[in-house]
Amino acid sequence: MGYPEEALAPEEQLVLHRHPHWKMLFWPAVTFILITALAGFVAGVVSRRTEDPPRSWLLLAILLIWLAIVLWRSVSALIRWKSTHFIVTDRRVLIRQGVLTHTGIDIPMNRISNVQFRHGLFDRMLGTGTLIIGSASDEPLEYDDIPQVQKVHALLYHQVFDVVQNNGNGGGYYGSEAGYP
User: Fold this and answer.
1) Using CA atoms, how far apart are residues 105 and 45, in angstroms rounded to an integer?
2) Domains of the chain: which residue ranges?
3) CATH class for domain 3-20+85-168?
4) Which member of 64, 78, 95, 159 has the greatest number of CB atoms within 10 A?
5) How many CB atoms within 10 Å of residue 53?
6) Stretches in the chain below the pLDDT threshold 70
7) Which DSSP string corresponds to 27-93?
8) What is the per-residue pLDDT for 163?
9) How many CA atoms lie within 13 A of 142 on its CB side?
10) Which is nearest to 69 in space by CA: 97, 28, 40?
């Protein structure tokens, strides 16, 4: 049983599970490439221009600095990306994020009043955007970097409409028969 399934209630069906768009990993990847190239260049210069006893210490220092920057800027971003989940079930929307400090928001489908999305030109080219969910809370909740935000918007809208329509008929069914991915 994977992560989203263990967060579900009995008989609750997973409709969608996404991590944020890969664009949030772009700058950490660029950082990794640049810092690796710079460390390699500096290590090459140190290897050619210094004598053996200080050379080993300088190379070790370069390695430790490289490792610290890679962990701080690249690996931490990858872990943040991997530990952020946007989940839609037939009953609710769940957002989970964090490794050491785990936070989550659950929004029942019957409490969602509107669903909007926003994406600019660059986001449209990448197939991502911001999903805005209006609920019983004071402020609408915004979730950035949702992949295929238009499809998620349509799916969520249909899920909300199905809940309202099925609850209005007296049924307790929260599912959708449309077969969305």
Assistant:
1) 51
2) 3-20+85-168, 26-80
3) mainly beta
4) 159
5) 8
6) 1-2, 137, 163-181
7) HHHHHHHHHHHHHHHHHHHHHHHS-HHHHHHHHHHHHHHHHHHHIIIIIHHHHHHHT-EEEEESSEE
8) 61
9) 8
10) 28
